[in-house]
Amino acid sequence: MTSAQAIRFYEAGSPDVLRFEDIEVAQPAAGQVLLRHVAVGLNYADTYFRDGTYPIPFPNGMGVEAAGVVEAVGEGVSNVQVGDRVTYTGFLNTLGAYSTARLIDADVLIKLPEGISCETAAAMTMRGLTSAYLMRRIYPFQSGDTILLHAAAGGVGLIVTQWAKLLGLTVIGTTSSEEKAAIARAHGCDHIINYSHENVAERVRELTNGVGVQVVFDSVGKDTFMSSLDSLKRRGLLVCVGTASGAIPEFNPVLLAMKGSLFITRPALADYIADPAEKQALADELFDHVINGRIKIEINQRYELKDAVQAHRDLEARKTTGSSIFVI
């Protein structure tokens, strides 16, 4: 057995349900590895597990993304070995990342190349792979296309903006403050709309000569759903990638026809990395961009694992920018 610490919770609720506990980790069974974490990712999706949006059995662990070093391997494991630096992200299959050490199935692990630290990996594996499939799998972007990106100063937003510029896209970003607007601009955002006091759809029409954008990436949900639809050009695509303000309202699909034969999708990262070859291809492209400096990963908040309650409070209060991690 290996002694470790972890965040556990026994009921859904506010950040206060999170508990910092001592645990014992067994030796890996067949197909598993014992992983010693170096850094753990903090993602908005974590709050959905905590507050019950994503129902799970209790008690349970928290978090789905981390990076670290393999300390032991179980029978039949051949894709990694002791001493390898690895990262991972997922959904229910990786829940429990808020820990100093854990057992995990070897087949979810991605080896880290030289030039990518564990801290960088923990800050970007989920956000980076999400950005990768949004940029490379969701829509056949052409140079000159324009996108609307909500939460442009967030962890995914900053990566998507940089990737979009590599593809020759024009990026209209939304933020809630001038501070966040400055961060988004510094990462390549062409136009900023402050949704605190500007009408998003009206500004998008002004910026696109009345046409609208090809694609909207909306991680906010309820508060931005209608303005996102109203920002699209005819036959445009709304990509609902999160619900930070709450679930989008129920609607009659006829609404999509009335607003220009629009399309809407609600993708999940798990479905774009379920195939090992596709996951590796997306990871390789992401790593290459980061190693060569074409995409920069901003770690703007670092927490200790014991401070998970405060980290969740900061996240839900929209006090964070870029990526946030727990340093072990």
TrEMBL record:
Gene3D superfamilies: Medium-chain alcohol dehydrogenases, catalytic domain, NAD(P)-binding Rossmann-like Domain. It catalyses: 2 a quinone + NADPH + H(+) = 2 a 1,4-benzosemiquinone + NADP(+). GO terms for molecular function: mRNA 3'-UTR AU-rich region binding; NADPH binding; quinone reductase (NADPH) activity; zinc ion binding. It comes from the Bacteria. Residues 13-326 form the Enoyl reductase (ER) domain. Belongs to the zinc-containing alcohol dehydrogenase family. Quinone oxidoreductase subfamily. Keywords: NADP, Oxidoreductase. It holds the Pfam family ADH_N. Its EC number is 1.6.5.5. GO terms for cellular component: cytosol. InterPro entries: ADH-like_C (IPR013149), ADH-like_N (IPR013154), ER (IPR020843), GroES-like_sf (IPR011032), NAD(P)-bd_dom_sf (IPR036291), QOR-like (IPR047618), Quin_OxRdtase/zeta-crystal_CS (IPR002364). It comes from Acinetobacter marinus. This is NADPH:quinone reductase.
